[in-house]
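Chapter summary example.
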Amino acid sequence: MNKNNFGILYVVATPIGNMQDMSLRAIEVLKTVDCIVAEDTRHSQPLLRHFLITTPIIALHEHNEREKTKTLLERLEKGESIALISDAGTPLISDPGYYLVREARVAGIKTVPVPGACAAIAALSVAGLPTDRFVFEGFLPAKSGPRMQRLQALNNETRTMIFYESPHRILDLLEAMRTAWAPTRSAVIAREVTKLFETITSGTLEELINWVKSDTNQERGEMVVVVEGMKEDLLDTQETYHDMLVILLDALPLKQAVELVTKITGQKKNTVYNLALKISNNKPIIPD
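The structure predicted for these 288 residues follows.
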């Protein structure tokens, strides 16, 4: 519960491209608080000037968040109110601010959301994939090994998955998804959402890879990738051939076990092979 003499920490969403997505409430809050905390003050100044907001602004980013939080909490405890914004969209969603919000709540300071644009939710809303259950994965590791490990860990995820990606890594991500899952998995690339060159393109992972390769413009801008989860009936089937593989791998080389399970189940060889590798790698080493 907020103590009466404490200020309020507002977490304010800002546009991700189109200035008209700025809410009237967000403008009012940013004009009336004592201080605005922004991820990059140089990036945020044009937004503030556009809406004639003259409130003092200071930087809060991943390199100074813990250091700055102490000072900001002291100001809040003295009764000042502060607004937290990010470069674009909703703060804390793959952006700094978690430590400040957490510590403010621990200190009993009231935290108030001022909702608005969020690239992940905007992309999901137009993807045409199931929206009743979804999971936000944000940015995956940039290095291929850890990225593949994370994707393989999501192999049985049945919820729609949302990812962020840098334009220069979009092909690497799509190709890793194709390898970890299946070329036929449905997905959507939402590029430059709400901006001038916005494109929302759907297809299988294989189709999207070919599309990006055919048009270098699709490797520019901010990317959200929305991918369908594994269908429940396929998950049941996978559990069946998982058990087959466990038995066969005890008696046969990996290649032969994969070929047999592929013939029996009708599953794609690449999918069965990836699962066989995971089973083999997780087997305990039994000493002679």
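To summarize the output: The longest strand covers residues 134-139.
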